[in-house]
Design brief:
globular, Aminoacid_DH-like_N_sf, Glutamate dehydrogenase, binds NADPH dihydro-nicotinamide-adenine-dinucleotide phosphate, alpha/beta, 13 strands, 5-stranded mixed β-sheet, about 425 residues, NAD, glutamate dehydrogenase (NADP+) activity, 5-stranded parallel β-sheet, Glu/Leu/Phe/Val/Trp_DH_C
């Protein structure tokens, strides 16, 4: 703890895992006295680097780039790249740590990693974004590779940015390989990858609801965020007959009591993905909806909540508000959106609660499928990928139930996900010796 005491998000993520995994280690002799958890919390490698680029006005700009190579016991490092001004070592280490467990849960051979830069894409021109991506990849290219470390997108990094980075990697290395996932379809991307995290989150919630004889049909659903994960989670909820009533961004949220249908969702996608605008623009076209500045959507009455924006975006008071309003299910689409106190509120109320490392694993799982397709040099159809995604989410749900169900029948999905994720990585580390 001392070594990382100035890294609060990383400490938060480790504490949550340690609380559930240490009792499991104590009950299982095989995992004792091998410093397994101690090894897992120490990144195999941290790379930090200067990223210098020129803005449109000709000024030189400096940012800090990172790649955390956390754990390669079960496969090449794998995890997204985040471009956001809040990016720092603590946030990326928490994400890389969680990623190790999440990737293990998918059952695919992927280790854990994460990277990014404290670059703010908001208000930047497309040329500036491209120059930044090229400058970032110029250094990152020395540390990654299709069999070493395969980054993907995350906050602030979508298909456009992955394309720019892939182009630069190819130019520098003179090789066309599956070094990044989330690529465009014309150059090795997988169908369903853009949809996968959001869809997977909803598939996971479906499995949880089914244990109570419930479904999305007729349910009111509050979604936070309005980026990649939020958009496709909403799309799947609408398809399953649920009513999505909110979206948000870091400035506020919109509430459309009548429900956001497919046509309105298409407008949200246009605002965010084509115009790179703000969610407040929604009320310009749909004035019956309201925009609430400076707040998060958890005060809106709902049956199901899908936090899909960012870490620590749902606190204890907001969790209490959700429970008081009758919410029965929370499935995290983002990474660690609920604070530890909020998680405690959900678990004490015994509602269905899924931690991101289980419920948002569909994105990286589909990235794993993209890697397989790249290695095989062929492309699967949307139906094939979606079927595999559904199967993976259902297996993750089963693994959580296996390790998380108590004698009363209550499933602690946090405990289940942590232990199931731990076992595979720990077994591989034990087999590989003291390394
Ligand atoms: P996007 O960049 O597409 O969207 C991010 C959304 O979250 C935006 O609406 C953004 O609003 C909001 N947001 C970002 N930072 C903050 C902040 N500090 N406070 C409040 N709101 C914020 O990212 P994704 O949809 O890809 O990612 C969302 C979450 O899902 C992240 O936690 C990510 O790690 C996680 N995730 C993503 C996966 C993927 O496949 N993309 C896979 C697994 C997890 P604004 O524009 O105002 O910043």
């Amino acid at each position: 703890a001392k070594r990382n005491s100035n890294e609060p998000e990383f400490m938060q993520a480790v504490k949550e895992v340690a609380e559930t995994v240490i009792p499991f280690i104590e009950e299982n002799k095989k995992y004792q006295n091998k410093m397994l958890l101690e090894r897992m919390v120490e990144s195999e490698r941290v790379i930090m680097f200067r990223v210098v680029w020129q803005d449109d006005a000709g000024n030189t700009q400096v940012n800090r780039g990172y790649r955390i190579q956390m754990n390669s016991a079960i496969g090449p490092y794998k995890g997204g790249i985040r471009f956001h001004p809040s990016v720092n070592l603590s946030i990326l280490k928490f994400l890389a740590f969680e990623q190790t467990f999440k990737n293990s849960l998918t059952t695919l051979p992927m280790g854990g990693g994460k990277g990014g830069a404290d670059f703010d894409p908001k208000g930047k021109s497309e040329n500036e974004i491209m120059r930044f991506c090229q400058a970032f990849m110029t250094e990152l290219s020395k540390h990654i590779g299709a069999n070493t470390d395969v980054p993907a997108g995350d906050i602030g990094v979508g298909g456009r940015e992955v394309g720019f980075m892939f182009g630069q990697y190819k130019r520098l290395r003179n090789e066309f390989t599956g070094v990044l996932t989330g690529k465009g379809i014309s150059f090795g991307g997988s169908l369903i990858r853009p949809e996968a995290t959001g869809y997977g989150d909803v598939y996971f919630a479906q499995s949880m609801l089914a244990t109570k004889g419930q479904s999305f049909s007729g349910k009111t659903v509050v979604v936070s965020g309005s980026g990649n994960v939020a958009q496709y989670a909403a799309e799947k909820v609408i398809e399953l007959g649920g009513k999505v009533v909110t979206f948000s961004d870091s400035a506020g949220y919109i509430y459309d009591e009548a429900g956001i249908d497919s046509e309105k969702l298409a407008y949200v996608m246009e605002i965010k993905n084509v115009n790179y605008g703000r969610i407040s623009d929604y009320v310009n076209k749909y004035p019956n909806a309201k925009y609430v500045a400076g707040k998060r959507p958890w005060e809106v009455k709902c049956d199901i909540a899908l936090p899909c924006a960012t870490q620590n975006e749902l606190n204890e008071d907001e969790a209490k508000m959700l429970i008081a309003n009758g919410c029965i299910c929370v499935a995290e689409g983002a990474n660690m959106p609920s604070t530890p106190e909020a998680v405690e509120v959900f678990q004490n109320a015994k509602i269905l609660f899924a931690p991101g490392k289980a419920s948002n694993a569909g994105g990286v799982a589909t990235s794993g499928l993209e890697m397989s397709q790249n290695s095989l040099r062929l492309s699967w159809t949307s139906e094939e990928v979606d079927e595999k995604l559904k199967g993976i989410m259902s297996n993750i749900h089963e693994a959580c139930v296996k390790y998380g169900k108590d004698s009363t029948g209550y499933v602690d999905y946090v405990k289940g996900a942590n232990i199931a994720g731990f076992v595979k990585v720990a077994d591989a580390m034990l087999a590989q010796g003291v390394v």
